[in-house]
């Protein structure tokens, strides 16, 4: 698959596939459990999801299988790093223009999301 | 017009290092490794992770069908792993043959302590292991750079209802730490007791270090199991979630201590036994410590009678009890008690629950013929048969009923199992009555428990169970 089409869904699937193979290799997971996780991922992350849709789903993945926590954490951190500067810049603009309500709301959303994740 | 505010320079907040999924080996190396090993399925999947991970997931979905391919590979790993294990703890089997010595067992324990001080990763086995299996492999996990120990399950199964009580990561990874198998007859040596206490201290220390702090369960799973996980599991297993309470008493017979207890393995817990004894002389069901009976598992609190062996078990779907679950439910709920002497004098060691081949069935009431109609017809029942047909005289058994309200029900159950009214009248003793202790003591005095009668009153739990036990032993010998 060309690089430009390696969207978030692809990356998540790739990370999970590697994680499962690693665990299978080292007998850290049963075949049955690996199968369950794969089934779950295929069902939860259907093809053609947008990055935003995938991002909405990612935090809940490890609710079902804690084995996925590493992958979830990695992508949440990615997301956070990507969006933090953007949020900060927006908030700075809003505060500069004394639009405290929106600034507060934006910050609040940001932290709520962080806490939720 | 108001001037825009100036924003002070933003303070940078520290962030955790980004978690990378550990692979260490490159995909090319993985593909090469598995191709060389002839494991084309794995090699191909690794290769596909680069271009079509979804296809990989589709195949992993059917992984159970590919199990054999990997299992055969596991054998290769196991061989070297066993060598590693032997380097670590020596030949385990050496300690299980007839020539085992106190020194040998001591060494084994010391090695275990040494092992406990190394970081571990506990792994699940692919399948539920048979009873009696023990540590099988020690592998080096390159992704974690720690010694990885795979310990077979003893009597756990992922569907075991007991696991419901455990946190999810533990459920998924639950494996006995020290699956001592079958009988480990420990030669008597004071050093063993000392060492045993050291192990207990280790657990206590571990538990106290952990405190009540909840471990980051996600981290446990995400970053691989580690020492904390083990400590956590140990802590949970020994303190909060003892799986079952198959109590084994230390007992010296012909210069040997028979089964001074086992660690996890068959779900035998002695570690916190002394504490229980010291606290309130009760062994409590971990799930419902406030209840006398766990409705699902059939576990219950039971009062400790020094020198007695408890048939104390739950209604289990797997493991030792298997087809005798119903029988056990009846018997264990009734709490029939034989003295250790009765068991020992019959030549049985304590500690084995190893399936059909075991001669020394710890749970003597697990006998298939114990309550079969053909064995004895009510109201003629006089004995409970042990596995090899030897019978334990029911004259030596007694029942203490905790809840008087339950007496009628229990009596009915006993009658249905063939106990006659005469036996019931004489052997069923109510607890928690004003004269219950005296009644029991008097009763014991009429049977082979005579020495217990004397010592029951001098048993001072606060001095330490083992110390007392050995004082007691010396006294009666």
Which features would summarize this protein structure in a list?
heterodimer, A: 117 residues, mainly alpha, 5 helices, 78% helix, B: 477 residues, alpha+beta, four-stranded mixed β-sheet, three-stranded mixed β-sheet, 10% strand, globular, disordered C terminus
Strand and helix layout:
The complex is a heterodimer of chains A (117) and B (477).
Chain A: H1 8-25, H2 31-44, H3 51-64, H4 69-96, H5 100-116
Helix pairs in contact in A: 1-2, 3-4, 4-5
Chain B: H1 27-36, H2 40-51, H3 53-61, H4 67-89, H5 102-116, E1 122-123, E2 135-141, E3 146-151, H6 168-173, E4 185-187, H7 190-210, H8 217-222, H9 227-240, E5 252-253, E6 256-258, H10 273-280, E7 282-283, E8 302-303, E9 308-310, H11 325-334, E10 336-339, H12 340-345, E11 383-385, E12 391-393, E13 398-401, H13 407-416, H14 421-427, E14 428-430, H15 436-445, H16 450-458, H17 465-476
Parallel strand pairs in B: 1-3, 13-14
Antiparallel strand pairs in B: 2-3, 4-6, 5-6, 7-8, 9-10, 10-13, 11-12
Please characterize this protein's 3D structure.
The complex is a heterodimer of chains A (117) and B (477). Chain A has helices at 8-25, 31-44, 51-64, 69-96, 100-116. Chain A is mainly α and 117 residues long. In chain B, 39% of the residues lie in helices and 10% in strands. In chain B, the strands form five sheets. Chain B has a four-stranded mixed sheet, with helices on both faces. In chain B, strands 1-3-2 form a three-stranded mixed sheet. In chain B, a hairpin with a 2-residue loop joins strand 5 and strand 6. In chain B, helix 5 packs parallel to helix 7. Chain B is globular. At the A-B interface, helix 1, helix 2 and helix 4 of A face helix 2, helix 3, helix 4, helix 6 and helix 8 of B.
- Strand-pairing-aware structural class of chain B: alpha+beta
Q: How many helix segments of chain A? A: 5
CA gyration radius of chain B, whole angstroms: 27 Å
Order of strands in the sheet with the most strands of chain B?
A: 9-10-13-14
Q: How is the main sheet of chain A built?
A: none
Question: What's the average pLDDT of chain A?
Answer: 78
Number of helices, counting only DSSP H or I runs of 4 residues or more of chain B:
17
